[in-house]
Amino acid sequence: MASLRRAALLGSPLLAAGITLASIAPWAGATTVAHAGSPGQANAAGMKIASSVTLDKAIAKMLPTSIATAGKLTIGAQLQQPPDDYYASNGTTAIGFEVDLAAALGKELGLKIVYAPMAFDSLITSLQDNRVDITMSAMNDTKPREKTINFVDYLVDGIGILVKAGNPDHISSPMDLCGKSVTVVSGTTQQAYATQLSSQCTKAGKQAVTTVISSSTAQEDESLLTGRVAAVLNDNITDAYDQEVDPKLFESVNYKPIEPGPYGIGVNKSQPKLLAAIHVGLQRLMNDGVYGKILSAWNLSSVELKYATVNHGMPG
């Protein structure tokens, strides 16, 4: 696919590290519904896999001097988005498949992982202001976002619809949300999609969608359970997680993921060396099977990418 801009995606860093990619797997056709694994077991298994990773001196040498000297990588994240990144029951320990993957990257690069919790809509500005080194928090790589930061893509997922258990409003597709209230987290692709869906509803002669803005997944779920909204628009894998953990409360609508696209690790545009190190490091974890094993531990193999790509975002 010429549109993938092969040279830009692969670049010299991968080739210099001895990584040759025969092809790039497109994400656009991904429609598999993912299901989260048991949180406790998944976290223990994922962290065990991450702890087995050893320092790769060649990739670590690619790091900017400032980060290598500091010996740490500060990650901006919500830590409220299971099964991606969230707090364990003790309220202080970060867990999730993204946390496990970040731990593996840290081991590979010889860096301590430090989290800076923040709201989703603060992630990009915090990265631009150098308050964090990278972002990794269920953020879709999109062309509009690529204008402000770079991305290393590591997973593919789409939007899902979450309703109360038993689906009292009989929602089976996006158009069933016409005339109803939905909630989305501020600054997300789900917010943009809700606006787009509302327009589709009115063009079809139906009532508009009322969008309720939330600050976190937990607030979205609360709005659903209290009856403030009829549905939650969130990542498909998060909806599946909610249903698996609390099947008496939540139900993930059995509909193909909407507008599937890649998740990306955000990197400041002023940090090309860090971008290259993350890109090559992630690809090495994919090649070595570490990446796949971590996703498998969380029962998320259906949303894997075969190759790490740079700025391979969805239109918007």
Class of the largest domain in CATH? Answer: Alpha Beta
Shape: globular
The secondary-structure class comes to alpha/beta
From N to C, what is the helix and strand string?
HHHHEEEEHEHEHEEHEHEHEEHHE
Assess the beta-strand content as a share of residues: 15-25%
Quaternary: single chain
User: What is the typical, i.e. mean, pLDDT?
Assistant: 90
Number of domains: 2
**What is the CATH third-level topology name of the largest domain?**
D-Maltodextrin-Binding Protein, domain 2
Helical stretch tally: 12
- Sheet of most strands: 10 strands, mixed
**Would you identify the CATH architecture of the largest domain?**
3-Layer(aba) Sandwich
Give an overview in words.
The protein is of the alpha/beta class. It is 36% helix and 22% strand. The strands form 2 sheets. Strands 1, 5, 6, 7, 8, 9, 10, 11, 12 and 13 form a 10-stranded mixed beta sheet that branches. A 3-stranded antiparallel beta sheet has the order 2-3-4, covered by helices on one side. The longest helix is centred in the last third of the chain and has 16 residues, at 272-287. The chain is globular. It starts with 5 loop residues before the first helix and ends in a 6-residue tail after the last strand.
